[in-house]
């Protein structure tokens, strides 16, 4: 089949997220200027540069108590920092619990039963015991076409790797099985790897 998004797809559910998958999940933690804590997962997330290391995530909705965006973006606009927490398979239920449209005063760390600890390079909490945490300084926020589409870019200023995930000098994702988003209500997790050698040119 072929469809133009502006005309609709004619299917029971939008296939777009299923086409662009799997997508890594950035579990974004932020702290408001009032000291409030926020933790929310975003599946429009990825690394975008090596030197300096940089990441991005996109927010595509609004909350009535945040105006044109959600808690994460609002906090980042105010403070200029955020932390990306990598989600392991074992944390899937806590991650899902933190994804709800909770009131801005809700502390998702507490709501989902997630232990927190302070970051080292930024004024923000991170998920204690996560396989990895990326402490980030905001570099830019880009507004995309659409009502509430924002892309947040950050430079990584600190990296935490859980000791049991570092094996023979490599970060071994099979030790924690990273969670990834598919389409609809579907997820997957990484359980096996294969390698390909790049052609020499």
TrEMBL record:
PANTHER family: BLR2425 PROTEIN, FLAVIN REDUCTASE LIKE DOMAIN-CONTAINING PROTEIN. It comes from Rhodophyticola porphyridii. It comes from the Bacteria. Pfam families: Flavin_Reduct (PF01613). GO terms for molecular function: FMN binding; oxidoreductase activity, acting on the CH-NH group of donors, NAD or NADP as acceptor. SMART domains: Flavin_Reduct. Gene3D superfamilies: Electron Transport, Fmn-binding Protein, Chain A. The lineage of its organism: Bacteria, Pseudomonadati, Pseudomonadota, Alphaproteobacteria, Rhodobacterales. SUPFAM superfamilies: FMN-binding split barrel. Residues 20-173 form the Flavin reductase like domain. This is Flavin reductase family protein. InterPro entries: Flavin_Rdtase-like_dom, Split_barrel_FMN-bd. Coiled coil: none annotated.
């Amino acid at each position: 089949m072929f469809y133009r998004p502006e005309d609709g797809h004619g299917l029971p559910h939008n296939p777009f997220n299923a086409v662009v998958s799997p997508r890594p999940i950035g579990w974004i933690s932020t702290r408001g200027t009032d000291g409030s804590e926020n933790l929310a997962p975003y599946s429009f997330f990825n690394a975008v540069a090596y030197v300096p290391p940089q990441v991005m995530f996109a927010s595509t909705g609004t909350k009535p108590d945040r105006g044109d965006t959600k808690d994460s973006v609002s906090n980042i606009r105010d403070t200029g920092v955020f932390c990306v927490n990598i989600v392991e398979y074992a944390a899937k239920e806590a991650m899902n619990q933190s994804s709800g449209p909770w009131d801005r005063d809700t502390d998702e760390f507490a709501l989902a039963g997630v232990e927190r600890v302070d970051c080292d390079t930024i004024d923000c909490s991170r998920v204690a015991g996560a396989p990895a945490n990326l402490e980030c300084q905001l570099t830019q926020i880009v507004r995309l076409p659409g009502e509430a589409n924002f892309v947040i870019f950050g430079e990584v200023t600190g990296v935490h790797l859980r000791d049991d995930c570092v094996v023979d000098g490599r970060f071994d994702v099979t030790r924690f099985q990273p969670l990834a988003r598919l389409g609809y209500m579907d997820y997957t997790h990484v359980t096996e790897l294969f390698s390909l050698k790049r052609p020499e040119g």
